[in-house]
Amino acid sequence: MPTVSIAAYVYGLVQGVGFRYSTQYRAMQLGLGGYARNRDDGSVEVIACGERQAVEQLVEWLKQGGPRSARVEKVFTEPHGKADYESFKIRY
């Protein structure tokens, strides 16, 4: 299966509500590698690498609001350079 790598930038109430941890859990369920980290502007950056369908499922989950405690206002995605991540991590 071909793999893809994307960067997603998630805006809204997404820090301090367990968003990164929920994203990590969902990404691991989908067999994806990458990471999630808080950004200084209050958004969360998500890098996801893996099978196209699994990456698309994660992006759709992000757009639908992620965890219940979050309030996602918008999600921007863009291709990310070829990257191989063995697992999905939380970055600080």
From TrEMBL:
Record keywords, A-Z: Hydrolase
InterPro entries: Acylphosphatase, Acylphosphatase-like_dom, Acylphosphatase-like_dom_sf, Acylphosphatase_bac, Acylphosphatase_CS
Entry superkingdom: Bacteria
The organism's taxonomic lineage, starting at the top: Bacteria, Pseudomonadati, Pseudomonadota, Gammaproteobacteria, Enterobacterales
EC number: 3.6.1.7
Substrates-to-products reaction catalysed: an acyl phosphate + H2O = a carboxylate + phosphate + H(+)
Pfam hit, one: Acylphosphatase
Gene3D superfamilies attached to this UniProt entry: 3.30.70.100
PANTHER family named among the record's database cross-references: ACYLPHOSPHATASE
Family: Belongs to the acylphosphatase family.
Catalytic-site annotation from UniProt: R20, N38
Protein name: Acylphosphatase
Single annotated GO MF: acylphosphatase activity
Domain Acylphosphatase-like, residue spans: 5-92
